[in-house]
Write a structure and sequence with these properties.
By secondary structure, this protein is α/β, with parallel strands linked by helices. The chain is built from eight helices and ten strands. It has helices at 19-30, 36-44, 65-73, 96-106, 123-131, 147-152, 163-166, 171-186; strands spanning 12-18, 33-34, 48-58, 77-82, 84-85, 91-92, 112-116, 135-140, 155-158, 167-168. Residues 181-195 have low confidence and may be disordered.
């Protein structure tokens, strides 16, 4: 395995994964799930992994617990935030500030920070870390990554260039995609004009 320019095996690396960003991009673009172990392996690229964090959201149902456990089993530390529900049904669970603070705190013990997100809100974080002399890399979906993130990163890995390596298709997701089509096919055509 050859390392890209500026990477070397002695670099200490920390990985920060914006799970919501990755989940929604994988689902919307590929109807798939992300293989986070493969993402971390790619991000580390044979260097010294110091810590890896996944920023996740817990719902009232708790159905995501098995997913959280799987991340932990792979050696990825989870940072958990409860989903906030507001009057009127609006929901929010934003990890941007927490992830940025952890990256700033961790920067003192690593040479390279890898941000696994295409969210342009992280551009000021990239600027700050680079200003502190850290190498900053981004791993994300090319089509949903902020252009400024790509430009600011010392290296950008596009997950979509190797979907078979980084994505997993599940029967459940495939079925969910087929069901709306079946329902649409079963609906009788009422009118060809929409109001």
């Amino acid at each position: 395995m050859t390392l890209p320019q500026m990477q070397h095996r002695e670099q200490r690396v920390a990985v920060f994964i914006d799970v919501q960003n990755m989940y929604h991009s994988a689902r919307n673009l590929h109807n798939a799930r992300v293989n986070f172990k493969a993402i971390v392996d790619e991000a580390v690229a044979g260097r010294k992994l110091i810590r890896s964090f996944a920023y996740v959201v817990r719902t009232k149902t708790g159905e995501e617990k098995a997913f959280f456990d799987a991340l932990t089993k792979e050696g990825i530390e989870t940072r958990i935030k409860d989903l906030q529900e507001f009057y009127g049904g609006a929901k929010k669970a934003d990890w941007d500030v927490g992830m940025a603070i952890d990256a700033v705190r961790t920067a003192d013990i690593v040479d390279t920070i890898v941000i696994v997100s295409g969210d342009g809100d992280f551009v000021p974080l990239l600027d700050y870390l680079k200003g502190r002399g850290r190498r900053v890399e981004v791993v994300a979906f090319g089509r949903t990554t902020s252009q400024r993130m790509r430009e600011q990163a010392d290296d950008f890995t596009d997950i979509e260039e190797s979907p078979q390596r980084f994505l997993m298709r599940s029967r459940k997701l495939i079925e969910q995609t087929r069901q709306p089509r079946r329902r649409a096919a079963e609906k009788p055509e009422i009118s060809s004009v929409e109001s």
